[in-house]
Design goal:
Blueprint: H1 3-10, H2 13-22, H3 30-37, H4 43-68, H5 75-80, H6 84-96, E1 101-105, H7 111-118, E2 122-127, H8 130-142, E3 149-153, E4 166-169, E5 174-175, E6 179-180, H9 191-199, E7 204-208, E8 222-228, E9 231-239, E10 248-253, E11 257-261, E12 278-282, H10 284-288, H11 292-299, E13 302-303, E14 311-313, E15 322-332, H12 335-345, E16 347-354, H13 361-368, E17 374-383, E18 386-394
Parallel strand pairs: 1-2, 1-4, 2-3, 4-7, 8-10, 16-17
Antiparallel strand pairs: 5-6, 7-9, 8-9, 10-11, 12-14, 12-15, 13-14, 15-18, 17-18
Helix pairs in contact: 1-4, 1-8, 2-4, 6-7
Amino acid sequence: MNDLDALLALLTPEGRALLDEVRDTDPARELAVATRLRRTHPAELVSAALGQARLRQRAVAKFGAEDAGRMFFTPDGVEQSTRASVAAYRAERLKDLGVTSVADLCCGIGGDAIAFARAGIRVLAVDRDPLTCGTARANADALGLTGLIEVREADVTEVDPTGYDAVFVDPARRSSKRGRIFDPEAYSPPLSWAVSAALGAPLGLLKIAPGIPHEAIPAEATAEWVSDGGDVKEAMLWFGPNVTPGARRATLLPAEAGIHVTPETMLPDPEVREVGRYLYEPDGAVIRAHLVAEVAEELDGGLIDPTIAYVTADEPHRTPYATAYEITDQLPFNVKKLKALLRERGVGTLTVKKRGSAVEPEELRRKVKPQGPNAATVFLTRVAGAPTMLIGHPVR
């Protein structure tokens, strides 16, 4: 039974009943469960059901327990799908821009199509892989969205999106042979084709890797980096009449806080200054968008080093764009001195952060062997070019 046949078998009444039965199977008990179920069900169907149960358990982190428990997944689909909260944010932005229909090119298993449809947007979801398309159809059906989602098996480069309010392209950025792809022109389809498709639409939106070099961003686009719960999830390129060419945005979910700057309002790099009482760690989306200067200005702070994205200031400030720490000690990098200081302070819970240091946090933890009732955070970094340890604790 190939993967597509396995999916089709799971969509039968017997397959669905089996999925319900194995829903909460503990991985440690899979062999025993499989042995029991194979007495009354085909072995290949049992294997497919258990495999799908594992994928659903993995997908909870992205889709939530309710949706993940009803949806169908492939291993690549779980890995590459957009987190539901990010997809919902994107769909609401399109809805706010007046979009009522979108061509979702490279739709995968349908994560973004589902978010678009739930926002009331009609979707043409296109992918060239039969299994992926079958999974997307199954998901639209499982979530009651078939009236808004049309899944089409085709090469996206041969699809005419004329008549749709927007085009959304999510090129494949992973390869089974090469793993993660860093060259945008090695995406499938290439970034240049995706840009052309976006520019030809009334409104175009591309999902790209957050690590894309800024010089690879087309001049016509507004680039947006999105984090969710502090983790950078993706970058997006926006094209259209309401888009400011060259603008940059950092968006932080779930609060939907955002910094938006145009080429005319971008600030120069912050000045480097001595370490003050407080250290601020900017959100990853802020760093990726090169908007640390805007955060430093809000905090009335400066950088501890011209190449390090840590902001320091003398006063505490509340900001959604950075995490604040009160610094109690500043030492040149020296493991023995750090160990002695932590022992003196009774630090047994040690959080190690690094930026601009080759030392691995676990390696440092093993060497200093923290013990005691107290907690501290150590930053392994550079201050004015010198390897430095900053010790402190989060500001509550």
